[in-house]
Amino acid sequence: MKTSIKSGNFRATKKGAGMTAKGVKAYRKANPGSKLKTAVTESNPSSSSRSKRRKAFCSRMCGMKKKRTSRKQQNNRNSRINQSLKRWRCRCGS
In angstroms, rounded to a whole number, what is the distance separating the alpha carbons of residues 83 and 78? Predict the structure, then answer.
């Protein structure tokens, strides 16, 4: 699997970071049995399993943001972690 933005498998940082549907499909093809899915981007997911997945992702990533990034990176709106949290509609610390 190619792992570059140009291959279409990943979003550019300024476009929300993360994998595209094409990237997830390529990853699952290269790794049979994988349960990788795309981001939950809708504001009110219709199924409870998607909303639980979004809540779990947000709590996990907000913790990573607090513990594993520098102050400069935490405040940078274009850092990969901040863009992914924005895409998933996570509200860290609010």
Answer: 6
Q: Can you tell me the distance from the alpha carbon of 90 to that of 58, in angstroms, rounded to the nearest whole number?
A: 5
Q: Using one digit for the tens of pLDDT, what is the confidence trace for 39-81?
A: 888 877 778 888 899 999 999 999 888 887 788 878 888 888 8
The overall pTM is greater than 0.85:
no
d(CA 1, CA 32): 13
Query: Quick one: how far is CA 5 from the chain centroid?
Result: 15
SS3 assignment for 10-74: ECCHHHCCCECHHHHHHHHHHCCCCCCCCCCCCCCCCCHHHHHHHHHHHHHHHHHHHHHCCHHHH
Q: Residues 6 or more apart from 11 whose CB is under 8 A from it?
A: 5, 17, 18, 19, 20
